Amino acid sequence: MQRLDKFSSLSKLKKQSNKGVPVMLKIAFAADTLPGQHALVLTVAAKRKLGEQGLKLDKKLGGALSRAVEASHFTGAKEQTLTILAPAKTRLTRLVLVGIGDAAVADASLFARVGGAAAAALNGKDAQAVFLVDCFKESKLAVSEAAAHAALGARLRSYRFDKYQTKQKPDQKPALKTLTLASKDFAAAKALYAPLDKIAEGVALARDLVSEPGNVLYPETLAQHALALSELGVKVTILDEKQMKKLGMNALLGVAQGSVNAPRLVALHWQGDAQAKDKAPVCFVGKGVTFDSGGISLKPGAGMEAMKYDMAGAAAVIGAIKALAGRKAKANVVGIVGLVENMPSGNAQRPGDVVTTASGQTIEVVNTDAEGRLVLADALWYAQETFKPRCIVDLATLTGAIVIALGHEYAGLFSNDDALSDQLTKAGKGVEETLWRFPLGDAFDKLINSPIADMKNVGERGAGSITAAQFLQRFIKKGTPWAHLDIAGTAWQEKDKPLSVKGATAFGVRLLDRLVADNFEAQ
Ligand code: BES
Ligand code: ZN
Ligand code: ZN
Question: Is the pTM of this model over 0.70?
């Protein structure tokens, strides 16, 4: 069953993917500010309160800092910024004040947001900036931790996907190349940041994958990106069409059959806990529809281009595995992604077709646009049969209905297990990828009974996200804790957010990493 694709030359992939890839913001750590010309960011607490370094700087500037603050509406409220250009008596190009609010309650999440706000404010000409994380005697968070999380926030917010922009003028491109975090205990800050940097790399990978258009990223090429994680010690298995046919994955294959791009199913196995190699792994499963046209139940044209992001669940799973492997997490985790393109054609699946899944259960495909659940039905089954996981979390841009219910703020959470559900909710809060749980139950389950097969792939108009989850639950074996995250509203944002710019968010990468860190990782 194991097979690495024939044309999988990693070096070729590397060459291709480095072309035009934006240079990541470089993060450095130092004890103090640097000499010379650069921008300086300084943290200020609520009520215009300057910390140790702020007071020193204000003195050096002859009180110009406090005068500038008084002349503005800047109060030091959370994430507020004030830019002072070319302050006299220094060689600084600009001084950016960034508010942390009440220093006594400022936590790691807040400092990540503060880092994000600073990165957004550093939109000038400077290639170099120093971020001075000041000390306030009321703070409960160690300054090193504050600096590490500010660095993470700055890096996440600085992500850009501009490889296809060939005509950008220099003033349209981000100038900032290096951000140096200056704080007390900077060596500790640097050590705390090291794993966060790996998480940022997982986020960047997921955002890259989600941002790529469907003509570049289709099942085979997405599988190649997953395969590249073998460099980190991840065991990657790729199943092709023939192998999936043998396993009876006709639901997944039915979705793929209308496309000239062949499907793939990829398993990424990270065995970071050597002592517990035989212990059942945690399993993440992602929907990877590289383009969802709707198939014969064709979507309307307006906005259809957004459906390149219908593989965001798969991207989150791949990004999370990259983060876990990158930071060498002491846990055994499997990521599985079902990769297909959903297209209409003479060979496409019809409404009314009946398919037999790998589990043996049959499905009447009433609507070919409800394809994500068909892909997941076989991927979830494969996950359980192959890896006997201790729990499964699937992520999918599954329904438009979840966007109606929750907008773009929360992802929907559906689960057969209260403990797993609580662990996920808590992890989500910690990384600000928040979840809201929905009910499941027999009354909803009945709505997907079919007159011709074991089930149909759509319910009635109401409770669309719940009936989709009920459908998935029919492929979960009794006793396996399972949760489904519907990320249709959170995987892509039309506006800048504290830790991301408009576009792909990589929602789920940090959440899954935190879930593992808090609950499944050996110390
Ligand atoms: N990929 C879509 C869901 C989606 C919608 C993702 C908006 C991101 C943004 C999914 O495959 C789909 O088309 N679902 C249908 C289901 C319906 C036919 C029961 C939907 O939500 O309309
Ligand atoms: Zn669809
Ligand atoms: Zn879809």
Answer: yes
